Amino acid sequence: MKKADEIPSRPETLVTLFLCGDVMTGRGIDQILPFPCDPAIHESYMQSALGYVELAETVHGRIPAPVDFRYIWGDALDILDSMAPDARIINLETAVTVRDDYWRGKGINYRMNPKNVPCLTKARIDCCSLANNHVLDWGYAGLLDTIETLQAAGIQTAGAGPGLSEAAEPAIVGAPGKARVLVFSFGTETSGIPPEWQAAPGRPGVNLLPDLSGETVQAIGEQVSRVRQPGDIVVASIHWGGNWGYTIPLAHREFARNLIDRAGVDIIHGHSSHHVLGIEVYRHKLILYGCGDFLNDYEGIGGYGRYRGDIGLMYFPSIDPSQGRLVQMRMFPTQIHRFRVRRASHTDALWLQNVLNRESILRGASISIDENDVLTLSCNAGE
Questions:
Q1: How many CB atoms lie within 10 A of CB 69?
Q2: Domain range holding 200?
Q3: What is the pLDDT tens value at each position of the chain, 383 positions in all?
Q4: For the chain, what is the domain count?
Q5: For 359, what's the count of Cα atoms within 13 Å in the CB-facing half-sphere?
Q6: Is the N or C terminus of the chain more exposed, i.e. has fewer CB atoms within 10 Å?
Q7: What is the C-alpha to C-alpha distance for residues 271 and 280, in angstroms, rounded to an integer?
Q8: Residue among 326, 378, 376 at smallest CA distance from 15
Q9: In 3D, which of 205, 45, 214 has the Cα closest to residue 130?
Q10: Helix or strand or coil: residue 365?
C-alpha cells in the first residue's frame, strides 16, 4: 500500500468519512482481549465463548491471547492513519457489559467487558451506531451500560437510549474546521431486532422503524430539519435485511432514495448483511445497502462460503458538504483472519471488484482497482 504522503490529496473543503460493516467485539473476540467476560453463553450450538476461539484456531492457527487492544484492527490502523478520515463511524454489534441477565429465547447473545472498550478507542472511533439486533442481548441494564461506557470513552452513540427521544437523537461529529456530520441510526425488524426492543418514553431501547412508508420518511425528514445546519452532512445508518444474498428488496431501494429526495439524507450506511452488497449512486448521493461484516468471530463456521463473509471493505467516501454530493470513494478490501483485520489478497480484491461492478447501480460510473488493490469509485454520474 502507498504510504500516507503518496495517497492523493483531497481538497480542503471535502469531508471524508470512514464507514464499515458490523463490528462485533463480543463473545470469542472478547475472550482474547485483556479483560474477558465470563465465557458462559446460552446457545444451542455452543455453551462457552471460548469455543469460538478454538474454532478459529483450528482453521488458522493459535491466537496469542491476551492480545493488546490494537490487535483486532490489524492492517486497518495503518489505512486509517493514511486516509485520515474526518469522522469514523461503525455499527457496533455487541453489548458492552458484564451483566448476566441475557435476553431469553433469542439464541445468540454478544457481550464485551467494558474494560475492553480501549479496543475501540485505539482506532479513534467517533460514533457507534447501536440500532441493531445485538445491543440488548444482555437486557435493558446491559444497554445502558453500553451507552455509558462508550460515552465515557469519548465515543458518541446513536440509535439507542434510555428513552424514545434519546434513541432518536443523532450523534453530531464535528470535523475540525469543516462541516458537521449528523449520524441518525435506525433499525428494522427484518434484521432480527425483536419488536419489544423498541424504545418508548421512559423505557430503554433502540430506534426501531415502524415501516418504510412515506410517513416514516416524512418523520425522519422532520427530525433532520430540526437539527441540520447549512453545510451539515447527514448519514442514515440503517440495520436492515437478512444476512445472505445479493438481492436488495425494492422497498429498501425506494426507502433509501426517498430519504435522499424527501428527508435531506446525504449518505445511507446500510448493514446487517454478512457480506458486501451492491452500491448505488443516486442523484450524486451514496447508498451502501449492506457493508458486510468487518469483524466477527465466525472463523471455522461453515456454510454460505460462496458469499465470502470473511471479506469486507473499509469505505472512505469524500463528500462536498455544500451539496452533500459524493465526489469520490476509495475502498480497501479486508479479510478477517485470527480475529484480526488484514488486507485482502489481490485475488480477493479482484473478486470483490467484480461483485461490486455486477451488483451496483452506478449510473455511468464504475469501480476501478489500482496496483495496491484499492478500489475507487469516481463519481462522474449519479443522476
A1: 17
A2: 4-378
A3: 444 434 555 566 899 999 999 999 999 999 999 999 999 999 998 999 999 999 999 999 999 999 999 999 999 999 999 999 999 999 999 999 999 999 999 999 999 999 999 999 999 999 999 999 999 999 999 999 999 999 999 999 999 999 999 999 999 998 678 889 999 999 999 999 999 999 999 999 999 999 999 999 999 999 999 999 999 999 999 999 999 899 999 999 999 999 999 999 999 999 999 999 999 999 999 999 999 999 999 999 988 888 999 999 999 999 999 999 999 999 999 999 999 999 999 999 999 999 999 999 988 788 999 999 999 997 754 44
A4: 1
A5: 22
A6: C
A7: 14
A8: 326
A9: 205
A10: coil
Residue 218 inside a domain? The answer is yes
- The CATH code of the domain that includes 260 is 3.60.21.10
Burial class (CB within 10 angstroms; exposed 0-12, middle 13-18, buried 19+) of 309: buried
> In the numeric block, which cell numbers belong to residue 262?
424527501
Q: At how many degrees (to 10) do helices 250-262 and 214-227 cross?
A: 40
Helix/strand/coil percent split, the chain, to 5: 30, 25, 45
The residue whose grid cell reads 464504475 is 366
Could you give the dihedral angle defined by the CA atoms of residues 381, 333, 11 and 230, in that order, rounded to the nearest 10 degrees?
70
Single pTM value for the model: 0.95
Write down the residue that cell numbers 473476540 correspond to: 29
Residue 49 included in any domain: yes
Q: Look at residue 316 and tell me if it is in a domain.
A: yes
Q: What is the DSSP string of 184-218?
A: EEEE-GGGT--GGGB-BTTB-EE-B-S-SSHHHHH
Residue 229 in any domain: the answer is yes
Which residues, including other chains, have CB under 8 Å from residue 218's CB and lie 6 or more apart?
262, 263
Phi, psi of 230 (to 5 degrees): -55, 130
Strand 267-271 and strand 233-239: the pairing is parallel
